[in-house]
């Protein structure tokens, strides 16, 4: 989308000016040339997209209509049975699947607000000028460069109920040990806090970039109009960050909904299967049990759910844009 | 190591003994270079019996999941084989077991996988049904291997639909470990063998050795392996013999799980023990008794001031029984396209199998009787003590997909019961319902 807009709007307009006084977008030849340029630009990516994204999606949908184990000779076509089983609880895995959907939803709802607010606050604070600013920024970003296996094991041993460091000190100070990795509601803490520590720095960096794009003149003007610092934040910073916020929100929701490593390593799905995420479930169904048909159906259901959630979030944030422009 | 009424406490330091003779017999067995036409089943005797290969040059890909302390032992044996067989180059590829089992089928199907691999006994049927691995009856008879050469329980477990798919390398049972310093303080000189003795020891450790929590019962691995041992001791089983129905919610199952749970209730075990925590505690001497895999002995060895001993898992129920698994050599569909590879595979399997005393040192019990009865093995005190359990190890039925049914069902039930999330009976019943459905779905899947 973004690539096409400037080509059709600005580039032809410049052509036209040189050509002498004709109305923009009027010449079909220019339009055709514009389209060709656009296709040329997106062409290489389009090929990659079709090969590695579109084709697998279609293939996945096709697989989801079968009872599919790629090594067994029979891959019977079952129509929508995999979906029906999931939705009516007719299969052995539907209950586990919906449990894992619920676990994923809980994790997303708990983590996303924190992953928006904290990085924004950090970004605003670290956008101020003070000595050692870059070092502090680096410190907050640093955990993000670690792999999930590293942070998973690290936090698993920090949080372990009996041999963990945190509980060791709790015990020493005379408090009761807390079963962070084995009992609700603590398990959610054991998943959300490491995630926050791990990825907040990434969102912070994007917010920082967004902050630096807001013109200093706007703050100056607001200050002249007598706006205090909260009002400047509310009426200059937040609106200025809207496009960035939409982006950060979307990727954060998607990342949280795809959570795998943290529950796999830190809580191991405990207690029972309460913190098994949907990606864990799909991976197990498709790549361990090799029931690729029902695993694909699960993926499709998850994708649809994520599309709906993303659409709701986007419309929620976009709604106010026209009002802002009117002002 | 015989049937004395109580197992003696073993010294911490293990004298591994000198093992210079190994490998000397490398170039002994004769090996005819005859070949059969491609596609034909390898007939017995086509390559003779033995552990050398003299055909044209061939490369063998050998994959396994020995990512722990066991890896270097296997690597060394592979290197020795390569030296003894200049015409074969075995390249070993090691990856995490979980990744291994999901990657091998793909890799084999695309021809870029292993020719020879290692699989656990409960994965053989699944991979046989999925045509990842091929029957080894000809290889076994070519090598003149038979039941008499191996512990019968593990030899028979490698058979699926009347065909042999695995050549057993080892058996690795659960073991019982005790902190001898703690035990001594509690006035106990031998690791207990039965329920009474075990419970008394726990009590004595609490009272006299000031170990508040002597026996940590985990909610995850290896709790379900302890449960599997116990249910068999109480006369039950996880599944019925055909692997068609879950039987772990029987009275025996409830009793077994209740017994484990009782230590958490009485405070002899902390609540909420995750896997590894019990092992960490054993290393730090915060608990005194633990049931864990035989391979953990190497971990205990590494701890300088830990004094420990090993014994068979005590008989809590009516009869001795213990969970175990077994590493088996397998040959993949990929290797069958090349007769020379098959011949080299056979030589390789034979070579390693005959020298499995080396492998035993990594914390395993060799499957071969001749190796197990050797003085060299008897000198490996911990391994040979835990090998006494071989007559009553329990394996799951050889049914495809059986390994997949464990985690979501009875492993989860054990977790819920030990965490106190569900009543023992309810947890097992819920899981059994699910397991029955999964077993049925597996039957349908592998028959289709």
Provide a short characterization of the protein structure:
The complex is a heterodimer of chains A (327) and B (448). Chain A is mainly α and 327 residues long.
Helix content of chain A: over 70%
CATH fold name of the largest domain in chain B: D-Maltodextrin-Binding Protein, domain 2
- Measured distance between first and last alpha carbons of chain B: 49 Å
| CATH uppermost class of the largest domain in chain B | Alpha Beta
The geometry of chain B reads as globular
Give the mean pLDDT of chain B: 86
What's the total count of β strands of chain B? 13
Question: What top-tier CATH class of chain A fits best?
Answer: Mainly Alpha
The count of domains of chain A is: 1
What form of chain A results from the Cα inertia axes?
flat
Description of the molecule:
The complex is a heterodimer of chains A (327) and B (448). Chain A is mainly alpha-helical and 327 residues long. Chain A has one domain (93-326): Orthogonal Bundle (MetI-like fold). Helix content of chain A is 73%, strand content 0%. Chain A has 15 helices and no strands. In chain A, α4 packs across α13. The two termini of chain A are 26 Å apart. Chain B is of the alpha+beta class and 448 residues long. Chain B folds into two domains: 58-169 and 326-394, 3-Layer(aba) Sandwich (D-Maltodextrin-Binding Protein, domain 2); 173-324 and 401-447, Periplasmic binding protein-like II (D-Maltodextrin-Binding Protein, domain 2), CATH 3.40.190.10. Helices cover 41% and strands 13% of the residues of chain B. In chain B, strands 7, 8, 9, 10, 12 and 13 form a six-stranded mixed sheet that branches. Chain B has a five-stranded mixed sheet with strand order 2-1-3-11-6. A two-stranded antiparallel ribbon of chain B has the order 4-5. The chains are: A mainly alpha (327), B alpha+beta (448). Chains A and B meet through α13 of A and α2, α10, α17 and α18 of B.
């Amino acid at each position: 989308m973004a690539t096409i807009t400037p080509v059709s709007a600005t580039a032809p307009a410049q052509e036209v000016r040189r050509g002498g006084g004709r109305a923009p977008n009027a010449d079909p030849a220019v339009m055709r040339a514009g389209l060709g340029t656009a296709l040329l630009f997106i062409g290489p990516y389009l090929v990659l997209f079709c090969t590695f994204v579109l084709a697998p999606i279609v293939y996945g949908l096709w697989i989801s209509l079968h009872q599919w184990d790629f090594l067994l000779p029979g891959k019977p076509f079952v129509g929508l049975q995999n979906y029906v089983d999931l939705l009516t609880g007719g299969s052995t895995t539907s209950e586990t699947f919906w449990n894992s959907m619920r676990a994923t939803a809980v994790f997303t709802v708990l983590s996303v607000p924190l992953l928006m607010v904290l990085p924004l606050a950090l970004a605003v604070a670290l956008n101020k000028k003070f000595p050692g600013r870059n070092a502090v920024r680096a410190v907050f970003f640093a955990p993000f460069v670690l792999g999930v296996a590293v942070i998973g094991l690290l936090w698993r041993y920090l949080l372990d109920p009996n041999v963990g460091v945190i509980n060791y000190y709790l015990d020493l100070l005379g408090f009761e040990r807390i079963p962070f990795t084995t009992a609700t509601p603590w398990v959610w803490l054991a998943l959300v806090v490491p995630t926050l520590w791990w990825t907040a720095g990434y969102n912070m960096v994007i917010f920082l970039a967004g902050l630096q794009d807001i013109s200093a003149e706007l703050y100056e003007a607001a200050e002249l109009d007598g706006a205090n610092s909260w009002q400047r934040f509310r009426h200059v910073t937040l609106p200025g960050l809207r496009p960035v916020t939409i982006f950060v929100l979307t990727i954060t929701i998607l990342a949280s909904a795809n959570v795998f490593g943290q529950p796999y390593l830190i809580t191991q799905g405990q207690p029972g299967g309460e913190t098994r995420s949907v990606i864990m479930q799909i991976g197990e169904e498709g790549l361990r049990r090799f029931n690729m048909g029902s695993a694909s159906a699960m993926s499709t259901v998850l994708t649809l759910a994520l599309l709906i959630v993303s659409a709701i979030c986007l419309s929620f944030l976009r709604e106010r844009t026209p009002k802002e422009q009117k002002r | 190591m015989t049937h004395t009424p109580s197992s003696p406490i073993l010294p911490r330091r293990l004298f591994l003994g000198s093992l210079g003779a190994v490998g000397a017999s490398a170039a002994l067995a004769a090996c005819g270079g005859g070949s059969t036409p491609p596609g034909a089943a390898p007939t017995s005797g086509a390559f003779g019996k033995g552990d050398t290969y003299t055909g044209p040059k061939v490369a063998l890909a050998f994959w396994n999941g020995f990512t722990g302390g066991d890896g270097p032992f296997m690597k060394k044996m592979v290197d020795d084989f390569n030296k003894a067989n200049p015409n074969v180059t075995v390249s070993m590829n090691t990856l995490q077991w979980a990744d291994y089992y999901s990657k091998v089928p793909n890799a084999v199907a695309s021809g870029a996988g292993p020719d020879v691999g290692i699989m656990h006994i409960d994965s053989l049927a699944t991979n046989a049904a999925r045509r990842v691995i091929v029957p080894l009856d000809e290889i076994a008879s070519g090598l003149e291997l038979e039941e008499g050469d191996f512990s019968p329980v593990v030899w028979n477990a490698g058979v699926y639909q009347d065909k042999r798919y695995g050549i057993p390398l080892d058996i690795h049972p659960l073991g019982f470990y005790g902190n001898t310093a703690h035990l001594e303080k509690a006035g106990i000189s031998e690791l207990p063998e039965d329920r009474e003795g075990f419970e008394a020891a726990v009590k004595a450790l609490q009272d006299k050795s000031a170990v508040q929590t002597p026996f940590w019962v985990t909610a995850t691995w290896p709790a379900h392996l302890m449960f599997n041992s116990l249910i068999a001791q109480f006369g039950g089983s996880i599944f019925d013999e055909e692997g068609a129905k879950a039987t772990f919610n029987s009275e025996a199952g409830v009793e077994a799980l209740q017994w484990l749970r009782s230590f958490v209730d009485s405070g002899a075990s902390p609540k909420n023990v995750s896997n590894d925590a019990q092992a960490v505690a054993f290393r730090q001497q915060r608990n005194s008794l633990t049931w864990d895999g035989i391979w953990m002995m190497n971990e205990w060895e590494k701890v300088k001031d830990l004094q420990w001993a090993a014994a068979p898992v005590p008989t809590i129920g009516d009869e001795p029984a213990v969970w175990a698994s077994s590493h088996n050599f397998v040959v993949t569909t990929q290797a069958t396209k090349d007769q020379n590879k098959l011949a080299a595979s056979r030589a390789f399997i034979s070579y390693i199998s005959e020298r499995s005393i080396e492998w035993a040192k990594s914390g395993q019990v060799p499957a071969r009787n001749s190796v197990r009865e050797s003085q060299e093995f008897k000198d490996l005190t911990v391994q040979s003590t835990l090998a006494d359990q071989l007559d009553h190890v329990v394996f799951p039925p050889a049914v495809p997909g059986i390994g997949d049914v464990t985690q979501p069902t009875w492993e989860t039930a054990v977790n819920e019961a030990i965490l106190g999330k569900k009543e023992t009976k309810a947890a097992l019943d819920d899981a059994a319902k699910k397991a029955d459905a999964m077993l049925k779905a597996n039957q349908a899947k592998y028959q289709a």
